[in-house]
Amino acid sequence: MKKTLLIIIILIAASAFLFYSKKESSLTNEKSKNPAAEEISTMTATANNTSISTTTEVEKKEEAPIVKKGVATSTPQIKITEINLDVPFSSQAPYSDWSEPYQNACEETASLMVAKYYQKATLTPAIAKEEILDLVAWQNKTFGYYEDTTAAETARILKEYYGFKRVEVIYDFSLADLKAEVLASRPVIIPASGQMLGNPNFKQPGPIYHMLVIKGLTENGDFITNDNGTRKGHNYVYKAEVLYKAIHDAPQGGHTINRADLDTNRKAMIIVYPN
Q1: Burial 94-125 (b: 16+ CB within 10 A, else e)
Q2: In angstroms, rounded to a whole number, what is the distance separating the alpha carbons of residues 15 and 227?
Q3: What is the CATH class of 83-272?
Q4: What is the DSSP pairing of strand 268-272 with strand 167-171?
Q5: What is d(CA 48, CA 46) in angstroms, rounded to the nearest whole number?
Q6: What value, to the nearest 5°, has the Cα angle with vertex 209 and ends 203 and 210?
Q7: Average pLDDT of 109-119?
Q8: Residue 213 to residues 137, 196, 217, 234, Cα–Cα distance (Å)
Q9: Which helix (H) or strand (E) element contains residue 214?
Q10: Nearest-angstrom CA–CA distance, 3 and 161
Q11: 88 contacts 122 by C-beta, under 8 angstroms
C-alpha cells in the first residue's frame, strides 16, 4: 500500500514537472517570434541603411561639377563698332585749281592717299600736286590717257608706279564684304557714279565718274571716307546704303562716260596690301 502510494506521488510530480517545462519552452519561443521585436529590429536596420545611402548621395552631389544655364562655354567674339584709319588726305585739286588735269585726277589722288598711308609718309598740297602731275604723265605713257581709268587700270598704277606687290580688284561684292575689308584695317578704293553719291560739296550735279577712299566705319555702320572730290572731303561720312548703291566701275577708260551705262555697270573695289 505504501509502495503504491509512493509510485502515485512520483508520477504526479513528474507530470507537474513536464507540464511547467513545456509551458516555459512555449513562452520562450513566442518571445523569439514577437512581431513587435522584429519590426523594431527592421526599422533600426532600415534607418541605418538610409543614413548611409543619404551620406553617399550627398558626397556624390558635392563632387559633381556645377553647371549654370545661360553661361556661354565658347570664347565671345569681339565686335568692332567703329574704325577710322589714319589715311592722309588731299583734294584732287590741292590748291583749289579745278582745271585739267586736276578736274579728272580723282583716281590718281585716291591712289596716292593709300600709298602714303602704307608708306607712313606725309602728304602736303605741294607733294600732292607734284605726284598728281607725275601720275598723269605716267598714265599718258602707259595707257595713252589719264581720264576716267577703270578699277583694273587704277590697280596697275598701285602695282607698277607705287610698287605694291599685292593689289586686288574684287567685283560684285556685298555690302558686308566691303565692311569686312575696312574692319580688317585695309583702306578701300572704290569707283562710283558720282552723282549718285549726293555729296552737297560737289559742284552740282557732281561728277559723272568718281573715285574715292573708304577708310573707316562709324558706330552706326556708315562709311568714313577721304573724298578727294572736295576740299571738305576729309573724314566725310556717307550712309552705307547710299555709297554702296553708287559703286560702279567705268565701262572703259579714257573715254566720255555715259551715266546711264555707268549706273548699271558692275561693282568693283580695289584692295591694297602692304609690302
Answers
A1: beeeeeebbebbbbbbbbbbbbbbbeeeebee
A2: 134
A3: alpha beta
A4: antiparallel
A5: 5
A6: 75
A7: 98
A8: 22, 16, 12, 10
A9: strand 209-217
A10: 156
A11: yes
**Which residues are within 8 A (CB) of 267 and not within 5 positions of it... i.e. 6 or more apart?**
171, 172, 173, 247, 248, 249
What are the residues facing 214 on neighbouring strands?
188, 225
Who's near 269: CB < 8 A, 6+ residues apart? Answer: 151, 169, 170, 173, 178, 181, 188, 189, 190, 247
* Residue listed under C-alpha cell 607733294: 127
| 10-66 pLDDT, tens digit each | 666 655 555 555 444 443 444 444 444 444 343 333 333 333 333 333 334 444 333
Helix (H) or strand (E) holding 169: strand 167-171
Taking each helix axis as running N to C, give the angle between helix 125-142 and helix 106-119, from 0 to 180 degrees, rounded to the nearest 10: 120
pTM of structure: 0.71
The grid cell for 79 is 565686335
- Residue 125 C-alpha cell reads as 598740297
Neighbours of 181 (CB within 10 A): 17
Amino acid (one-letter) located at 103: Q
